[in-house]
Amino acid sequence: MTDYRYLIVGGGMVADSAARGVREIDPDGSIGIVSEDVDRPYARPALSKKLWTDPEFDWDEKVDLHTEETGATFVLGTRVTAIDRTGKTVTTDDGATHGYERLLIATGGKPRSLPGLEPSERVLDYRSAADYRRLRALADAGAHVAVVGGGYIGTEIAAGVVQNGARVTLVDPDEIVGGRMFPEDLATAFQQRFVDHGVELRLGRRVTSGSETDTGVVLTLDDGSVVEADAVVVGLGIEPATALAADAGLTVRDGILVSSTLRTDDDSVFAAGDVAEYPDRILGTRRVEHVDNAQQQGRQAGRNLADADETYDHTPMFYSDVFDMGYEAVGQVSTSLRTLEDWQEPTVTGVVYYLDDDQLVRGILLWNVWDKTDEARKVLAEAHALTTDMLPGRITA
User: Fold this and answer.
1) Which of 42, 50, 47 is nearest to 15 (CA)?
2) Which of the ends of the chain has fewer CB neighbours closer than 10 A, N or C?
3) Which run of H or of E encompasses 304?
4) Integer distance in angstroms from the first to the last C-alpha of the chain?
């Protein structure tokens, strides 16, 4: 058995930030990172953004997070199968046991799959650097790639692949690409970028079945039509990987329930990142699947592993870049809410506010408006004191 003062289950950006957070408090305590990934922690957003659009974007300099600088020991390509909270150990799928004094669960999430298809060389759930390497090889060979899902990852991948010379078909259950997030005029302009770049759109359609052949993948859609492609990228979101925590007797709801200091029910066990349901100081209890949260919450979890006992008080943002359009956002960005648009140039530069039934701002979309997320957080924090006529002009580019 190998013992660590600090043991991290999961090897993503949370793990890197947590290891660095530990080192801010404790320069010497041993850190172990057990990860199913075969690569050390890396900047995951690059897999669907800069690596496709910037030929000078270097993996070693820009993507590899160099977590080895913390002195952590890595156990890669290995899955933790059980946590023994009484004995303070974890067991892995190779039969090994690792002891801990403090444990951080950063298991992230498992991608939702398509009916009849399992991940393979041609069916990519696109969560790892290995997926990027495979898709890059296919795109460089001019393959036809089907992307299923018009959300955050799906639109970035479709844009990145088509800009690298491959043929792309985007299958999206929404009638307009981006229709679940953006008001109709903005979603229409967003969709047009994909049309202009030659992406074939299958809108308002869902995949009912799929099969893999020796040379490609066949998708059957709910209208009976068929998409034949060399590969498929599945971008249907994730389910938080909470089973390990639940089996260990920790409280799980939408995610692993943690306190404001990111502790679980067990004082020796913390959780952070995609898998953690935490109390946001502005927006209430929530679970966030974006990189800003992974970095900031991971750092705070690491500091608290090392006895800092500090509240996580950051309300995270998220962002995306697609073709020549980009945005940053804070809070709930969904057209299930009422929207108030404040454009400096319609569908090019402006702010969209998302309001609940009580006319309170619950989310803010900054469209080609940069470095204003602190102002957006301030609006969300002061929402009860703001009326809708006070919003236009409040945040500008």
Assistant:
1) 42
2) N
3) helix 291-305
4) 56
How far is residue 331's CA from residue 28's CA, in Å, rounded to a whole number? 37
pLDDT tens digits along 329-358 = 999 999 999 999 999 999 999 999 999 999
Q: pTM for this one?
A: 0.96
Burial 256-274 (b: 16+ CB within 10 A, else e): bbbeebbbbebeebbbbbb
- The predicted pLDDT at position 174 comes to 95
CA dihedral (201, 202, 206, 208) positive or negative: negative
Evaluate the CA torsion angle 33, 35, 38, 42 in order and state its sign: negative
Tokens representing residue 375 in the block = 């102002």
Give the sign of the dihedral formed by CA 292, CA 297, CA 302, CA 308: positive
The tens digit of pLDDT for each residue in 255-278 reads 999 999 999 999 999 999 999 999
Q: How far apart are CA 248 and CA 267, in angstroms?
A: 14
Q: What residues of the chain score a pLDDT lower than 50?
A: none
Phi-psi region of 163 (alpha: psi -120 to 50; beta: other; left: phi over 0): alpha
Fill in the DSSP letter of residue 151: S
> In b/e form, how buried is each residue of 172-202, taking b as 16+ CB within 10 angstroms?
bbbebbbbbbbbeebbebbbebbeeeebbbb
Cα dihedral 195, 197, 202, 208, rounded to 10, equals -160
